[in-house]
User: What shape does this take?
Amino acid sequence: MNYSFLAMLFRQRYIKRWSLMHSTEPETLSRHTMECAVISHCLCEIGNSVFGKNYDSARAALLSLFHDAAEVVTGDLPTPVKYASDTMRRSYADIEAAAKENLLSKLPDELRPAYEKLLKPDNYPETSLIKAADKLCALIKCIIEKNSGNREFDAAYSSTLEILKGMENEEVEWFMEYLLPAFSKSLDEL
Assistant: This one.
């Protein structure tokens, strides 16, 4: 029998993000998950090195690579739609759970438990940092678009910045103070 789990995951390259907005630079789900993994890893290292915590940065990076895997089945539902109401939130959670089950069904029984842990992870200490990394990726996308003169991302930038500040997370605050400013610079300025 042929199992298509990995082939499905590799289709992340075809899933476009930010579909309701004009982008000067298109973003795919595969690009987003890689960037989210890098930032999740970094947030863990900030926590460990700067604040004396004990995060598993490798686990955070790995979980980040799978955090939006269901979107190869559902597509990228825009945030304003996904969170428009409690009914929409619950409905999307059900759709996402079904999409994860669909993906897991495309694995041999021997591999399913390993990937189930990635698609349906326990609530690890790193989970909040992965969510923060996801938002930081959105903020960076907004910065890149705004730097290209695209005002389409002004409101998304402001709302995402507010969400990040509202997290009151010291790793995020440190990232935003020391690492985020470089994303506004040109190559020659870096």
Observations:
- The chain is about 60% helix and 0% strand.
